[in-house]
Amino acid sequence: MTDWTEQTAQARHWFESLRDRICAAFEAIEREAGSDAAFVYTPWSREQAGEPAENDANANPGGGVRGVMKGKVFEKVGVNVSTVGGAFSPEFAKTINGADPENPVFTATGISLVAHMANPHVPAVHMNTRFLTTSKAWFGGGGDLNPPIPYDEDTAEFHAAFKAACDAHDGEYYLRFKKWADDYFYIPHRKVHRGVGGIFYDHLECADLDGFAANFAFTRDVGEAFLDVFPRLVRRRMGMGFTPEEKQRQLEWRGRYAEFNLVYDRGTLFGLKTGGNIDAILMSLPPEAVWS
Q: d(Cα 160, Cα 248) in Å, to the nearest integer?
């Protein structure tokens, strides 16, 4: 296939519906904590800086919606959905699956979420899923848990949710994608992982409509697994007391998180290289962090 317009629209609709349900679930937790915090949504259009207006590939560059909430439980949580299209720069095209430097046209739609929590006993979390097309079409995504103070029970439950999603589609997915997460979410200059892992997958290619249907079904199950498990973990820990030392530990850990996202994260680089909204790209950064 060469025209994935309909499938991109299907994926976009799913990502937007998942966003709506996740945000509703997070706002419900804020209500349980006695907070009236709610998401503020900011639409944005993709800038085409440096790209000629006459380039047909960039005629409909797209954009997205940035959703941010700052509350009593969720100190800062961002849930973004974007759908963009255009052409990669020739150099950047060399780094993207299926991109042709001579015809570097692409589309990308996805959801990206990062939550930084007020209580250091509540784990921070990252989740995203996406569908991209170049000369190929593929899904990618995953989720990883980032607790300043890890609890084995939480780690096991988070991994079990994603393992169940993986096992429903391919018995080899979980171990493969868990290892990928372990390898990817690693800070080489610190020689530490940024959290307790999860799953990460990319280039899950769709050769035809059947391939799209199978990979889309898996990606939907990844999103559902996240929506099922993470609110449970938040409710389990959000009422716990914490000491100044534990808060300091959280702030130092957030510094490591910021280092990873600014130096190594593929999504950050992709957004900056494709004219994305700066505030949406950098919503993953914590509201407060320290470096000792």
A: 30
Instruction: Give the residue numbers annotated as catalytic, written as ranges.
Output: 126
What confidence score (pLDDT) does residue 35 get?
Answer: 98
pTM: 0.91
Q: Is the pLDDT of residue 278 over 90?
A: no
Model pLDDT, residue 53: 38
Phi, psi (degrees; rounded to nearest 5) at 33: -90, 5
Q: Would you give the DSSP letter of residue 123? A: P
- CB neighbour class for 158 (10 Å; exposed up to 12, middle 13-18, buried from 19): buried
> Is-contact 143 13, C-beta < 8 A?
no
Per the CB < 8 A criterion, the answer to whether 224 and 256 are in contact is no
**DSSP characters over 234-275:** HHHHTT----HHHHHHHHHHHHHHHHHHHHT-HHHHHHHHTT
> Which tokens belong to 270?
């992709």
- On whether the CB atoms of residues 44 and 65 are closer than 8 A, the answer is yes
CB 202 within 8 A of CB 138: yes
3-class DSSP state of 142: strand
Looking up tokens 């509201």, which residue turns up?
287
Other C-beta atoms lying within 10 Å of the C-beta of residue 179: 13
Q: At what angle do helices 209-237 and 152-167 cross, to 10 degrees?
A: 160
Q: Which two tokens stand for residue 240?
A: 């716990």
Extract the runs of DSSP E, i.e. beta strands, from 118-178: 124-133, 137-146
Exposure of 83 in the CB half-sphere (CA atoms within 13 A): 12
Rounded distance between C-alpha atoms, residue 60 and residue 213, angstroms: 26
How many Å apart are CA 30 and CA 239, to the nearest integer? 12
